[in-house]
Amino acid sequence: MSRKRSTPQYAAPLYVPQPGELVMDTAHHDVRGVYMATEGSTVFLRPEGGGIEWTTRSADIKPVDCQAGSARKAEQRVSRVGAERLSERLAPEVARLNAWSRGAGR
């Protein structure tokens, strides 16, 4: 009777980001966060724009895809342009209401 040799299973090395690097937390619905530090197997992340730090396992973070970052920047540009157009459309009405509130239209 021959015994099968089992081949050792090696885990892929964990991703180790640099402090301040933007990463994706796969354990929390792929939310993006800024890497702060690691303590044991716990990683500390902070929201992109600042805020309360949260923790996740080091096995649950991965680098943010460059294309995803580009898409997000494009989305922000479109939002900004849309907001500027809305502001242009609202400006005359806001000016009229401001004058009215100062008593010019009463």
Reported for the largest beta sheet, the result is: 5 strands, antiparallel
Let me know the number of strands.
5
Q: SSE order in H/E notation?
A: EEEEEH
Write out the strand line-up for the largest beta sheet, numbering strands in chain order.
Answer: 4-3-2-1-5
Sequence stretches where pLDDT stays below 50 over 5 or more residues:
none
The average pLDDT is 79
Shape: elongated
Count of discrete alpha- or pi-helical segments spanning 4 or more residues? 1
Q: Find the structural class using helix and strand composition.
A: alpha+beta
Q: Approximately how much helix is present in the residues?
A: 25-40%
- Cα distance spanning the termini: 103 Å
Oligomer: single chain
Please state the CA-atom Rg, rounded to the nearest Å.
25 Å
Beta content:
15-25%
List keywords for this structure.
alpha+beta; single chain; 34% helix; 106 residues
Question: Overview of this structure, please?
Answer:
- This protein is of the alpha+beta class and 106 residues long.
- Helices cover 34% and strands 24% of the residues.
- The chain has one helix spanning 66-101; strands spanning 22-25, 31-39, 42-46, 54-57, 61-63.
- The chain has a 5-stranded antiparallel sheet, with no helix packed on it.
- It is elongated.
- 7% of the residues are buried.
